[in-house]
Amino acid sequence: MNKIYAFIIIIPLLAILFLKTMSFYEFDTKQRYIKNTVDSVAHKVMITGVMTNNDKDELIDKLEKLSDFKSEDVILKCGYMQEDGSMSGLYSYVPGNVLERGEIFSIYVQSTGESALSRMEGESIGENKKLFYKAKALCRVEKKQQEY
Amino acid sequence: MFIGLSVILLAFVIFINIADYSLFTYKRNAISKAIDYAVTSAVQQINKNESLIGVANGFIEETGERKLEGVEIDIDMATRTFLTVFYENYKIGNLSIDNSLLICATSTQNEKLRYTIKADSQLIFEGELENSVLLEEKINQAITQYWCSAKDNSQVYLNGNPKTNMLENGSYLLAFIKDIKIKGLYSQRNVNLSSFAGAKLERQ
Q: What is the side-by-side strand order in the sheet with A134-140?
């Protein structure tokens, strides 16, 4: 009788737990990697003031290996910091444009498809709260200025 | 049967704890990165009215060396910029660091290091130091004074030893955030984070 209970209850429960663990681990690892990739791009722009088309292609290549990312899923913006410490409205950044010291650069990526964890959890996350891979970084260009 | 259920329960507890810590570390790393972006943005808020601008103001005739003396950071503007950039990078839940932020700005004047330490728009310390090595002690005094009711005694370490001092005489900005409450799946942990950046300027 105990063996029957083991097959009916324990093994399926262990299997569900195992699958949930795997999907969580996958989501966490990929999400961390995507955030690091986006941070690396932002850091490069912070130092050099420019994100080239090659940089963008490389970024998309890296992201595509992890999930479903398209070119339009990478949103690049730039703008100015106002004198009172707030930010001006950001506008689209065209890759290749050289930003000056003090300008704002923002990068936001969000996967087209939802993550495996999201599909597995279904409605328990909430109907409109699908888990996508996403990351954001906003920095201010700090290349050396020669006026002081 | 009961052994099997116990194993499942144990596995479940382990999984929940790992997930909890994993979420905490992800948020902590994101906040840490947001502080780095914020401090490198804030350090660029130079007070042009109080700074000595132009090569004639920082040029040693005997050696030809250019010095960055007298370039002042506007600490109030830097604080506002810091908060703007921080919240743009990290805005999850109702996290607020406005009252947990201590900012220290430095500049050089007559080869002495001038410093201003503020927290929540309140001036804590201001003065001059002969050597930048001594700044660590001042910042830690300011932390102790401002958060005198705190249970733990947080410290900032700028100098590994006098030869590895990270701050030189120059225009720097240091931000210290105390007791940021980061929630994992179910547990909440308090962390202190700090970051500093140089103004990266060249006199011309």
A: A91-92, A74-80, A103-110, A134-140
Q: What is the mean pLDDT of chain A?
A: 86
Of B152 and A54, which is predicted with more confidence?
A54
Structure tokens belonging to residue A33: 């990697």
What span, in angstroms and rounded, lies between the C-alpha atoms of B113 and B165? 14
Task: Find chain B residues with C-beta within 8 A of A143's C-beta.
Answer: 200
Residues from chain B contacting residue A15 (CB–CB below 8 Å):
none
**Interface contact flag, A140 B45, Cβ < 8 Å:** no
Q: What is the pLDDT of residue B17?
A: 92
- Per-residue pLDDT tens for B111-123? 888 999 999 888 8
Q: Under 8 Å CB-to-CB from B128, ≥6 apart: which residues?
A: B109, B112, B113, B114, B115
Domain boundaries, chain B: 2-198
| Cβ contact, residue pair B204, A147, below 8 Å | yes
Asked if residue B196 lies in contact with residue B179, where contact means CB atoms within 8 angstroms, the answer is: no
